[in-house]
Write a structure and sequence with these properties.
heterodimer, A: alpha+beta, five-stranded mixed sheet, 5 strands, B: alpha/beta, six-stranded mixed sheet
Chain lengths: ~180, ~325
């Protein structure tokens, strides 16, 4: 019995079947590349949203931390007869900065995570850093300043003190806090 | 070299075995080192986050409200108190349970905090922890006392005064886990099994509270907490703490009291209008000194009495200092 041997009669390099397989492979590769690009695009959009969410959550946490620091007994307006939320006793803050004795005691108090604490009077408008010479007619009291790199977060507070008539007088202010975790 | 079964054990085989063994050893070594490092880093981070959660003032933990802090896995919390320095330090270390190696690694880095006062046992274990905060005023606000209790521990208060039982009832309504951990009873026999009994009028209990003398006794140790009606923060602190931790935290709290009193003293002397705080100087000066010199909780008697004196005098002033 003789077998007919199939010989290449066509001058083409590949058979029709091989071309079909190649076509299919190219289509598959193109689909995979398309899927990868689409996936990357989707992940990028998702990550951008996630990043915004993380930034927003960090900001909320930072503002909450700033308010917590403002509520420390060392800053808090403390009067049982005259309750005041988010009120800071400006005299106590100034003493923490200006009194050498208090300053020395509190030098070990602040954790290393908090790099700066600053109070600022927003209204009425005042100028300059508070010193023994110009207090209380000054704008800012910088309590802590332990780093050259700052990322300040702030929160609104009332800055209060007893006026000459003996009654409480509050001004609109802000607490600025810089911490390593920001 | 060909053995009788025709197995050719040549140099390639020997080389492959030696190199294979080295690669496997190195892989195991690096995986175990890396996992140990990861465990230490995760534990340290958890400790740091836990300490941030325990920030006493502000929105996270409110006064007179029960909060629940849950860890994703069973966690061991190691709390240490150091009363040295101007304010002393609260040290917190957490370690999560693991099925690989030791159950708790105890290798996490301690978080050091100067402004937090945690009253609890020195070693705690569990997944869920109840936290409640009580404000300490002597007579101005000094700090927030943080009480930390694992939910797997049960407490039974026997014959507690109305002030305490009303508060426990209020907390029971606030949190179901608190409801499962705290019980009120008239006699120790009514308490659930395996609960730590706290007796307020004597009896066979692990903790005995004597409200009239202001003392808490555990075993052969006793501490002083003062007057229940004026400040219950220290009473709860003594009930839920190891007594050596209680003594250390009291010392730290008094160092803070001394520092804050000094601010008020200077405020009265230098910044306030002359009429404000007039007449408080000598008492505040004594207060700064006796709070700083506290040796044990028994010294609180004099401190609380002077605190009341300052409060009454301040109240009568036309321009109070605080």
């Amino acid at each position: 019995m003789k077998y007919k041997t199939k010989t290449k009669t066509s001058p083409a390099l590949y058979s029709r079947g091989q071309l079909k397989i190649q076509e299919m492979a190219f289509v598959l590769v193109a689909i995979v590349i398309f899927m990868v690009i689409a996936g990357l695009f989707f992940i990028k959009i998702q990550m951008a949203g996630l990043k915004d969410e993380v930034v927003s959550q960090n900001d909320d946490k930072a503002i909450s931390l700033a308010l917590k620091i403002a509520s420390l007994p060392e800053f808090l307006w403390s009067s049982k007869n005259n309750q005041c939320d988010n009120c800071v006793d400006l005299d106590k803050v100034f003493l923490l900065k200006s009194s050498a004795q208090t300053n020395k005691i509190y030098s070990q108090f602040w954790t290393k995570d908090i790099t700066a604490i600053k109070f600022e009077v927003l209204y009425p408008k005042k100028e300059g850093e508070c010193t023994k010479g110009n207090y209380p007619n000054c704008k800012t009291i910088t309590l802590l300043n332990s780093s050259s790199e700052y990322s300040f977060k702030s929160a609104y507070v009332s800055l209060c003190k007893i006026d000459l008539e003996g009654s409480r007088k509050c001004e609109l202010g802000k607490i600025y806090v810089s911490a390593k975790q920001f | 070299m060909i053995n009788k079964k025709g197995f050719d054990f040549n140099f390639s085989w020997l080389f492959a075995l030696v190199i294979g063994a080295v690669i496997i050893f190195l892989a195991i070594y690096f995986v175990s080192t890396y996992s140990g490092f990861q465990r230490k880093s995760v534990d340290s981070l958890a400790g740091k986050q836990f300490s941030i959660l325990l920030y006493p003032t502000g929105a996270d933990l409110d006064n007179d409200k029960i909060d629940l802090i849950s860890f994703p896995i069973e966690t061991h919390i190691d709390l240490k108190c150091d009363s040295s320095g101007n304010f002393g330090t609260q040290l917190i270390q957490t370690s999560g349970s693991s099925t690989i190696g030791k159950e708790y690694s105890e290798s996490g880095i301690y978080s050091k905090l100067n402004d937090r006062y945690i009253f609890s046992n020195n070693q705690l274990e569990g997944k869920d922890f109840l936290v409640f905060v009580k404000s300490l005023n002597l007579p101005f606000k000094i700090a927030d006392v943080i009480l930390l209790i694992p939910t797997n521990k049960k407490y039974c208060f026997v014959s507690s005064p109305n002030k305490i039982s009303d508060e426990i009832e209020k907390f029971k309504l606030q949190n179901s886990k608190f409801n499962e951990s705290f019980f009120l009873a008239d006699t120790p026999a009514e308490c659930p099994r395996r609960s730590e009994k706290v007796c307020f009028s004597g009896g066979d209990c692990e903790t005995k509270v004597y409200p009239l003398t202001g003392k808490v006794i555990k075993g052969d140790k006793s501490v002083f907490f003062g007057d229940l009606n004026e400040n219950d923060a220290l009473l709860y602190g003594a009930i839920f703490s190891d007594l050596d931790n209680y003594e250390c935290q009291i010392k730290r709290l008094m160092l803070r009291t001394s520092a804050i009193s000094n601010i008020y003293l200077e405020k009265g002397e230098t910044l306030s209008p002359p009429s404000c705080g007039a007449g408080l100087t000598s008492q505040l000066f004594s207060f700064v000194n006796i709070t700083q010199a506290l040796n044990s909780s028994l010294d609180l008697k004099n401190i609380l009495s002077l605190s009341n004196e300052i409060q009454n005098k301040n109240k009568d002033l036309s321009c109070p200092l605080f």
